[in-house]
Specification:
about 150 residues, rod-shaped
Length: about 150
């Protein structure tokens, strides 16, 4: 751009700052009023550039971050660890309840077997020790019997 031998001190260099100037509307009369809800249509702005071109367009608002993209207060890993712990405790509690149920069922079955043995034993005792006058069976006097080869002989 500049020749190498030319000296340009900072004070000598000219700096031109161009400020865009907005254009006035080209229509000298007022447009008819149309009932429009405010805030729906953005305003249109026209700007004249330093080289004479006219740029017309809408004002662009800066993009706002999506609230769903914001970082959550608690990390997902921590939530997963807590949910895993809750699930583990639920499984442990279920196994404890299952073990308790099996123990209670075993105790119930044991009590039913004991009750059946007591009832059946009582029935047998009543049959043996009752004297209802039935003498139709064979009575053996053990004191007079002789036992030979595991047989009773009277």
């Amino acid at each position: 751009m500049y020749p190498e031998h030319a000296y340009n001190p900072p004070a000598v260099r000219a700096v031109a700052v161009h400020q865009p100037t907005p254009l006035t509307p080209a229509v000298p009369y007022a447009a008819p009023l149309v009932p429009v809800q405010p805030g729906i249509l953005p305003t249109v702005a026209s700007v004249v550039l330093p080289d004479g071109r006219v740029v017309t367009g809408y004002a662009i608002e800066p993009a706002k971050p999506d609230p769903a993209v914001a970082k959550p207060a608690v990390s997902r890993t921590a939530v997963n660890v807590v949910l895993g712990g809750v699930g583990f405790l639920a499984v442990c509690g279920g196994l404890l309840l299952l073990t308790t149920f099996i123990a209670a069922l075993t105790a119930l079955i044991t009590q039913l077997i004991t009750l059946a043995a007591v009832i059946f034993g009582g029935w047998i005792a009543v049959q043996i020790f009752s004297t209802n006058g039935r003498k139709d069976g064979t009575t053996v006097n053990i004191r007079k019997a002789v036992i030979k080869r595991n047989h009773f002989h009277v």
